[in-house]
Amino acid sequence: GTAPTLAVIGGDGIGPEVTAEALKVLRATIGADAFSTREYSLGADHWKATGEVLDDDTLAEIATADAIVLGAVGTAPGSTEVPSGLLERGLLLKLRFSLDQGVNLRPSVWYPGTPTPLSEEVTGAGPIDFVVCREGTEGLYCGNGGVVRAGTPQEIATEVSLNTAFGVERVVRDAFTRAQARRGHLTLVHKHNVLVNAGSLWRRVVDEVGADFPDVEHDYMHVDAVTIALVREPQRFDVIVTDNLFGDIITDLAGAVTGGIGLAPSANINTSGKFPSMFEPVHGSAPDIAGTGKADPTAAISSMALLLDHLGRPADADRIRSAVGTDIASRLAGPMRTTSQIGDAIAALV
Ligand code: NAD
Ligand code: IPM
Ligand code: MN
After folding, report:
1. Partners of 158 in beta bridges
2. What is the pLDDT of residue 1?
3. Quick one: which of 153, 157, 234, 303 has the fewest CB in 10 Å?
4. Architecture of domain 1-101+264-350 in CATH?
């Protein structure tokens, strides 16, 4: 068919820096003619200049792309330059929600030798290689709730988690399918000892869908306990399925223990194929290091492997994964490199 069109949104902070390296590696892997790009300059500067975050016409145009490559959006957590959440909700979450990206896939692989806070006792215990299937369009992210008596001592603020049988089943089925193709193990992560309504829905769906996958074993962990296990015995995990907020939190932890947030890729998958899926690093715009050349582009680059998997080119995706593995292994001995030096090195290895 014709070459796929990628909508590219570099975004804020280090977003454009790491995205440039991701596209460099993608070109080196499949050739510059194998895809075309449409660049969108959205983010803090666009909002300041126009008062718009993501207008409907732009969203409609992005929705016609074959896939989306995103850097990161958002300003420094303490700053008041842009109201907190305006860009995250108005751009990133708007894309995930409007494009119905129900599965937020976040793989974690630890490459031996990669610096990690894990002890040798843990890292010596076998390969660490798991994926988190985070629900992407529901939960506490829906903006369901409100504030009454704002600013008074009687203020009441609510955020209500939305869980639909449809949305839960969609991500659970995807997770079981992945587990079947991997090591045949799935862990549901929730907090059903407290969140009994949503918790029982998630459990029921896992049991029901699990019956269609007799060769996949499944178990359960509370989200607080899973944070211990991710640090003490990460090898036990193959596929984790969980809701939107738990998935957000545990994937930063998973990134940190498998070598740093600068290595963690993600895919926001529209499972129906009606809308484009979106590929982005797990990390944010890192305003503290923007413009310094210190940003590690590896997470953005590995997200291109997920893009190629999605475009039906798994062998090319593996070329990126193996180039990344080789590059990471060489980091121990070598000097610190800049964002573009790491991109160049990986591009030369694919
Ligand atoms: P962050 O992920 O941007 O940064 C956390 C820490 O990790 C910082 O110390 C940063 O320097 C470091 N870091 C992140 N990416 C790195 C990389 N590639 N290489 C080296 N170091 C890296 O999280 P934050 O500071 O909480 O958020 C900053 C902004 O990003 C906020 O506005 C937040 O809302 C936004 N954010 C956006 C996304 C997204 O667009 N997908 C994701 C997370 C946070
Ligand atoms: C992520 C980010 C986003 C999320 C924010 C910026 C809305 O933290 O992609 O992990 O919470 O999903
Ligand atoms: Mn996050």
Report:
1. 146
2. 64
3. 153
4. 3-Layer(aba) Sandwich (3.40)
Tell me if residue 224 is catalytic: yes
Task: State the closest ligand 2 atom to the C-alpha of 266, by its place in the atom list counted from 1.
Answer: 9
Domain boundaries 116-258, corresponding CATH code: 3.40.718.10
Distance between Cα 282 and ligand 3 center (Å): 6
Residues framing ligand 2 (Cβ under 6 A): 74, 88, 92-93, 248, 282, 284
Please determine whether the domains at 1-101+264-350 and 116-258 fall in the same fold group of CATH.
Answer: yes
**Domain extents in the chain:** 1-101+264-350, 116-258
Which residue of 73, 106, 283 sits with most ligand 1 atoms within 8 Å of its CB, as the best mutation to test the pocket?
283
Minimal CA–CA distance to 295: which of 6, 12, 7, 8? 12
Catalytic residue among 66, 141, 174, 243: 141
- Residues 97 and 137: beta-carbon distance below 8 Å: yes
Annotation says 33 is catalytic: no
Ligand 3 centroid–CA 70 distance in Å is: 14
Annotation says 327 is catalytic: no
Q: Which ligand is nearest to the CA of 104?
A: 2
Instruction: Give mean pLDDT in consecutive 10-residue pieces for the chain, a chain of 350 residues.
Output: 93 98 98 98 97 98 98 94 95 98 97 90 95 98 96 98 98 98 98 98 98 98 98 98 98 96 97 98 97 98 98 98 94 90 98
